[in-house]
Structures are given as C-alpha cells and as structure tokens.
Amino acid sequence: MKHKLYQRLIVSVNSIVFCAGLVYALLSLLSCSTKNNTESTSHIQEIQIIPTPFKILYKRDFFELKKSMRVLMNLSDSKSKQTSEVLIVLLKKKTGRIFKIADRFTTSKLANTIEIITDEDKHIKPQGFKIMVGSNKIKLYANDLIGLQYGTQTIIDLLQKEDGRWLIPQSTIIDEPKIENRAIYLTLPDSVWPDGLAQSLVKNRINQLITPQKYTLAATGLILLSDTASLNSRWKLDITHAKSIKQLYLESPQKCTTAIFTINHPAMLSTDSLRILGEALWSPSAKLNYSSIENRIAIKSLN
Question: Would the pTM of this model clear 0.85, i.e. be above it?
Fold first, then answer.
C-alpha cells in the first residue's frame, strides 16, 4: 500500500514538474515573441515624417528596394511620366542606383516595384496622396501633379539604409493639406535669398510665393502670386507664432483657404524656419505640437 502511494506521489510530482516546465516554456516563447515584435516595430516607430501625415498605419515588415526594382506607370499619362522621371532622379541621388521605368499595364506581375497611379481614387483631395507599402510593391495614388510630387518626396524621405539594404517600412500613408493655399510674403530683396529657395519652399509644401516685385521662380508646384492676391491671414514668424497658428485653426478652420506668413528677416529663410512654416500650414491642427513649434522658434534670434 505504501509502495503504491509512493508511486502515485512520484507520478504527481513528475506531472507538476512537467506542467511547470511547459508553462515556463510557453511564457518564454511569449516573452521572446513580444520582444521580437517590439524590436521589429521599434525601428518603424522612430521614423519621423515631416510634416506629420494626416493618417498613417504602420505594419511590421519592410519593403526592400532591390537593384531590379522597376517604376511602373501609365506610359500615356503625362503626370505619371513626369513623376516617374523625377522619382528616378531622386532615387539615384539618394541610393546611387539607376532604376528603369516600365508600363504598369503590361508588367503588372513584376515583383519589387513602385507604381504611380492617377485618377483612380476620387476620395483623394487636391494636392493629397496615398502611399501603400507592401512586402514587394509600393503604390502611390494621387489625382494631380502636386499630390504626386508630395507623395514622391515622402517615399524618398521614408528610405533608410540598414546593413547595406535600402528599406521602407510597410505602411499606408494618407496625406492632404489643411489649408489649400500656403504662402509666404517675401519682403526681402533677392540679393539675400538663399540658393535653392524655390526648391526649399516646394520641399516644405509652401505652394505660393508673394513678393512686392514680380519675380519668376522656375520650380515645380510653386505658384507665384502678386501682392494684390486676396489674403485671409498674415502672420510673422516670432515668439507668438505658435499662438497665431493655434488661433488660425481654432477660430476659422473652415473659412480659411489661404494663410500667409510675412518673411522680413533673412533668418526666416533658414531650413528650420521653412520647415516650421510648411508643417504649420500643411498639417491639421490635431497633428500640430504648438509647444514644440514655440520652443523651436524661441531659440532663434529673429529680432
């Protein structure tokens, strides 16, 4: 009798040890899985897109830009053709690689592609775009040339080099401007304009330039206005900038289609100042960090 009880006790102990070991193993696997997921997404979460997109959904993997990548487009569409050519140039500048263009209708089965698509998504607003990044395909949707341009630049900004590979996080990005006409009123003589000013304005999504004189700047997507343009707002970039931005959004977010900032000091044409202006004019109010904008301006000497 004692022997049988002893055997049962042994079996019970072994069962408990086995179950404990199984639980430990499962917990370990869960911990590793959580850790791996955290590691796989931590890099993605560090990516900063400026200005902050209207909507963004991250996934957990990457699109790798391989040497065999092709840019797909509608060969009969002038907007797609111009965008594709610009994208090829920007990719070469950033990666050093030369990529080829192909017809999106006859080569749709190709893997590792960036596809330019126009006039197919009527929900995309003017100047807006949608980017869908999958494991082996990127699709850029926009209905006008300016939207395609902003989407193209976003793709370039997303590219990161890691262990010799060029990667873009798998994600869906939908972006559109809060204010249609985003302008600066430049009162400075052209002798103090920095080189590449037009390109800087376009990169920061400032799409209108107003000057007392009538200069012409050759820059895609940049509209030149005269000083007789109808203006809803005129702000100066100073310590009250963040408060002015907030007031603009809160008091007349629906009525304001044009916002303009007066540039009356060369320091306001710095890269960081133009980025602040572009971000403030493009992003919806919910995406703006007013304190951050105020702090960034406070450290400048613009008096």
Answer: no
